[in-house]
């Protein structure tokens, strides 16, 4: 398991980290994004999408569960599973077709569906530390 800790001090740095990971993302890669409300998950996701070559505006698919972007160098599947009651509900949207397909998947609130994540994925955990400043973020990147 590879682990990297990145500290950012503002939205721009969090966005750039996402962009960097998007530039190197490969077909079939899954990002499991974990963090409380307001920590910058969407900012990170927007950067990742730009790194994949997606120019379309990216927003959190809270009510649709998955948003598909296919104009980049790889298809991008952006999940928000915050409102999922049971992991089995993911079957209804074709979760496995996306996650085990040839695109890049990013799953916000991935800890809520931990038991159905693929064997190999990249966990991105974003945390605030207000003692270090309002804009400070500690971002853990772990390869599983």
Topology:
Blueprint: E1 3-9, H1 11-24, E2 30-34, H2 41-51, E3 66-69, E4 76-80, H3 95-99, E5 104-108, E6 122-128, E7 136-143
Helix pairs in contact: 1-2
Explain the overall architecture:
This protein is α/β, with parallel strands linked by helices. Helices cover 21% and strands 28% of the residues. The protein contains three helices and seven strands. Helix 1 (11-24) crosses helix 2. The longest helix is centred in the first third of the chain and has 14 residues, at 11-24. The termini are close together.
Put the structure in a nutshell:
With 144 residues, this protein is of the alpha/beta class.
Number of strands: 7
Structural category? alpha/beta
Strand order of the largest sheet: 1-7-6-2-5-4-3
The domain tally reads 1
**Beta-strand residue fraction:** 25-35%
Please tell me what the overall shape is: globular
Termini, distance in Å? Answer: 6 Å
From the 3D coordinates, which CATH architecture would you assign?
3-Layer(aba) Sandwich
Largest sheet: 7 strands, mixed
- Low-pLDDT residue intervals, each spanning 5 or more residues: none
Rg, Cα atoms, Å: 14 Å
Mean pLDDT: 95
Order of helices and strands: EHEHEEHEEE
Any idea of the CATH topology? Answer: Rossmann fold
CATH homologous superfamily placement: P-loop containing nucleotide triphosphate hydrolases
Helix content: 10-25%
> For the record, what CATH class applies?
Alpha Beta
Q: How many helices?
A: 3
């Amino acid at each position: 398991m590879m682990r990297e800790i990145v500290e950012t001090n503002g939205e721009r740095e969090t966005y750039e980290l996402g962009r960097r990971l998007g530039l190197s993302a490969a077909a079939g890669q899954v990002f499991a994004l974990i963090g409380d409300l307001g920590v910058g998950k969407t900012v990170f996701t927007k950067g990742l999408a730009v790194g994949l070559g997606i120019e379309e505006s990216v927003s959190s698919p809270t009510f649709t569960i998955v948003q598909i972007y296919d104009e980049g160098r790889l298809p991008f599947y952006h999940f928000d599973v915050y409102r999922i009651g049971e992991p089995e509900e993911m079957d209804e949207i074709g979760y496995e077709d996306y996650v085990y397909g040839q695109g890049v998947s990013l799953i916000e609130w991935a800890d809520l569906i931990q038991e159905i994540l693929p064997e190999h994925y990249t966990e991105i955990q974003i945390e605030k530390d207000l003692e270090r400043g309002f804009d400070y973020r500690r971002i853990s990147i772990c390869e599983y």
